[in-house]
Design a protein that fits this description.
Helix content is about 45%, strand content about 10%. The protein is mainly alpha-helical. Helix 2 packs across helix 4. The longest helix is centred in the middle third of the chain and has 16 residues.
Length: about 120
């Protein structure tokens, strides 16, 4: 299963996979009709999935990549129009955290039937 972003870059990448013969059934679609390729990030899904990643880290998920850990430390609670939300501090990035959020979403959504081995490639 491939879970890519539904943004312009991710959408083009997923369409290119299909053009190369990759099965559309093996690409995550964010709608029930399976027409919108990729993981559609909304404020709601982003908050829900960031909090789920936090829950997994607190439960023992190991993150062996220092830049990811530093990026997670940049997250803070902020109050926007009376709503609390977790977001990176002003000027901080969240690219790595959002990639981890998508991977965590995939593991939770598709529950691997066998142990998954993750290796570092750096």
């Amino acid at each position: 299963m491939v879970i890519g972003g539904a943004d312009a870059f991710g959408g083009q990448f997923l369409k290119h996979l299909i053009d190369l013969g990759y099965s559309k059934g093996k690409i995550y679609c964010s709608d029930k009709k399976k027409e919108k390729l990729g993981y559609q990030e909304t404020e709601y899904t982003q908050q829900k999935d960031v909090l789920e990643l936090e829950r997994q880290v607190r439960a023992g998920l190991k993150v062996p990549f220092k830049p990811a850990i530093l990026e997670m430390f940049a997250y803070q609670w902020s109050d926007v129009k009376g709503k609390s939300k977790a977001e990176p501090a002003k000027g901080a990035h969240n690219d790595i955290v959002m990639a981890m959020v998508k991977a965590n979403f995939g593991f939770n959504y598709y529950k691997p039937v066998a142990p998954v081995s993750i290796r570092r490639f750096y």
